[in-house]
């Protein structure tokens, strides 16, 4: 769902920190997991849409919540965000694809079809994350 | 050798190469920009040698739409070009979106096709959710929001026309996301030729036959005056009661007939030796596909 593009609400949009921050937990290049780094790869976007697509959903949510706050008061976005947070916790194990049904219903994207449903469907991806590493990362042990 | 990919280092151990997916991010759907850097490097390498990368196939089109007394008429030619070669002599450029809403697509053929299919699905879901027949304005709004999001990289220009509770309506949407609502519209490379016919002879509240003739003339003007358009004229007449999809309504360009036969007579080439090797095969399935030869 796309609200009107209110420029005044965009001041809180997600800042551009960098394309692929290669820093590991100690702030240094994590060669084991992410390979060697290259300055060119990190600084320059390879495609003009890469950055805007990365943050698109976040920016949309921010604009929607700001508009909702202006129209209905503070409690409306607070309550919705609480529900989002609760719905986001209903997940399968980290290396398995989750349906995110509750989250989709809240967002209203359960009755829209976009490119994220047609292209690169995570359910049909050929590579799976390593179960041990992903679970350890999620639990914070890694 | 270790590659510089973002999230899956490749290790070569002895003579075995294996890939470790140590990414800790959950995969998301949608467009993936992984290969854009590789493509940029490949294109640079190719252009050094003097070759160029292949282009997406554009339709090089004439599409037109018109509002007449009882509804909307959409018209399109049927040629798809690949740079300077005709890729498809009889493609369908008028796409179905809803029972009373159709959409003509110009620009990159694949983009127009996928965009209209996605719109059709979204419109169906939306009308199931609201319980009402869809509005042409709703289709236009979703199209323009999506095309603006991708900043013109989805190269499809569309003419959306249909009849809904507000009467017959016609919108055009450009690849960057702007739209127009007008009584007659043309798009594509042959738009200038087609719109000149419309500007000359359009009147509000025309009758059906007169309007069909006018759209046919406009598309024919595009076919003759524009190299990117050709072959037949397709029409789609949408009224409140019926939808008439007239595929191949007119064929202004017939392939010429050859005056003589240019085949060699049997016996022209002398036969020196002849060996016959019979193959024992069983006929499983026989089907005939007629090709457009001669």
From TrEMBL, chain A:
Recorded GO CC terms: cytoplasm; nucleus
Claim: Nucleotidyltransferase is one of the keywords in the record: no
Keyword set, alphabetical order: Chaperone
GO biological process, one term: proteasome assembly
Domain of life of the native organism: Eukaryota
InterPro entries: Ump1
PANTHER family on file: PROTEASOME MATURATION PROTEIN, PROTEASOME MATURATION PROTEIN UMP1
Protein family (similarity comment): Belongs to the POMP/UMP1 family.
Listed name of the protein: Proteasome maturation protein
Organism of origin: Cyprinus carpio carpio
From TrEMBL, chain B:
Active site: 61 (nucleophile)
Compartments, record wording: Cytoplasm; Nucleus
Entry's Gene Ontology BP terms: proteolysis involved in protein catabolic process
RNA-binding found in the keyword field: no
Residue ranges annotated for the Proteasome beta subunit C-terminal domain, each copy included: 252-288
Catalysed reactions, semicolon-separated: Cleavage of peptide bonds with very broad specificity
Annotated coiled-coil segments of the chain: none
MF term (GO), any: threonine-type endopeptidase activity
Keywords: Cytoplasm, Hydrolase, Nucleus, Protease, Proteasome, Threonine protease
GO cellular component: cytoplasm; nucleus; proteasome core complex
UniProt-listed SUPFAM superfamilies: N-terminal nucleophile aminohydrolases (Ntn hydrolases)
Subunit structure: Component of the proteasome complex.
Function text: Component of the proteasome, a multicatalytic proteinase complex which is characterized by its ability to cleave peptides with Arg, Phe, Tyr, Leu, and Glu adjacent to the leaving group at neutral or slightly basic pH. The proteasome has an ATP-dependent proteolytic activity.
Family, per entry: Belongs to the peptidase T1B family.
Name of this protein: Proteasome subunit beta
């Amino acid at each position: 769902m796309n609200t009107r593009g209110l420029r005044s609400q965009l001041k809180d949009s997600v800042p551009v920190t960098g394309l692929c921050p290669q820093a590991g937990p100690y702030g240094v290049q994590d060669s084991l997991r992410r390979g060697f780094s290259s300055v060119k790869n990190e600084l320059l976007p390879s495609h003009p849409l890469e950055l805007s697509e990365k943050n698109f959903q976040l920016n949309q949510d921010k604009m929607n919540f700001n508009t909702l706050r202006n129209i209905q008061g503070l409690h409306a976005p607070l309550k919705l965000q609480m529900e989002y947070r609760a719905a986001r916790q209903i997940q399968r194990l980290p290396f398995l694809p989750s349906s995110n049904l509750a989250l989709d219903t809240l967002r209203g994207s359960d009755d829209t079809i976009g490119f994220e449903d047609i292209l690169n469907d995570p359910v049909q991806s050929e590579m799976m994350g390593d179960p041990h590493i992903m679970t350890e990362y999620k639990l914070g042990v890694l | 050798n270790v590659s510089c990919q973002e999230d899956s280092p490749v290790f070569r151990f002895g003579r075995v190469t294996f890939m470790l997916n140590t990414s800790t991010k959950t995969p998301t759907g949608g467009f993936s920009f992984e290969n854009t850097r590789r493509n940029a490097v490949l294109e640079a390498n190719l252009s050094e040698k003097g070759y160029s990368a292949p282009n997406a196939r554009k339709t090089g089109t004439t599409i037109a739409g018109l509002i007449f007394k009882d509804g909307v008429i959409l018209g399109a030619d049927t040629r798809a070009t690949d740079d300077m070669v005709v890729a498809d002599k009889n493609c369908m450029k008028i796409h179905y979106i809803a029972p009373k809403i159709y959409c003509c697509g110009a620009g990159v053929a694949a983009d127009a096709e996928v965009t209209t299919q996605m719109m059709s699905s979204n419109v169906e879901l939306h009308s199931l959710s609201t319980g009402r027949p869809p509005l042409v304005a709703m289709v236009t709004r979703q199209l323009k929001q999506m095309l603006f999001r991708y900043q013109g990289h989805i190269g499809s220009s569309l003419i959306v026309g249909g009849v809904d509770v507000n009467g017959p309506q016609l919108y055009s949407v450009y690849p960057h996301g702007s739209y127009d609502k007008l009584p007659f519209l043309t798009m594509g490379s042959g738009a200038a030729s087609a719109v000149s016919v419309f500007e000359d002879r359009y009147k509000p509240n025309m009758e059906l036959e007169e309007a069909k003739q006018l759209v046919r003339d406009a598309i024919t003007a595009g076919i003759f005056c524009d190299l990117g358009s050709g072959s037949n004229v397709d029409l789609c007449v949408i009224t409140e009661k019926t939808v008439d999809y007239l595929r191949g309504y007119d064929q202004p360009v017939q392939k010429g007939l050859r005056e003589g036969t240019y085949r060699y007579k049997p016996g022209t080439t002398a036969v020196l030796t002849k060996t016959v090797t019979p193959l024992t095969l069983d006929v499983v399935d026989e089907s005939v596909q007629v090709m457009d030869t001669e």
